[in-house]
Fold this sequence. Notes:
five-stranded mixed beta sheet, alpha+beta, Alpha-Beta Plaits
Amino acid sequence: MSEKDCAFIIVSGTVQGVGFRFFAVRKAQKYGLKGWVKNTLEDTVESEVEGEKSLILDYIKDLKSGPGSAKVKDVQVEWKEFENKYSDFQITY
C-alpha cells in the first residue's frame, strides 16, 4: 500500500493575482490530492494537501514553478500526520 501523508505548504513571491490558486487546484486534481489552497494577508499562498507522498512531492514541484505569470521565490513545506480529513480539494478564503 502507498504511503499517505499530509503537507502544509507556504508559497511566497508574486503568487497572488496571477491565477496561482486555480493552478494549484488543477494540479491537486491531476494528482488526486485532497485539501485546500488560499491567499493570505501576507501576500503568500498557503495549501494543505493529503494523499500519497510521492504525488504530494509532484504537487510541490509544480507549485515551485507555478503558472507562467507567477514568480515563486520560496516554497516552505511542513510535513504533518495524515488524518484523512478532506473529501476534495478546493479554494478557501
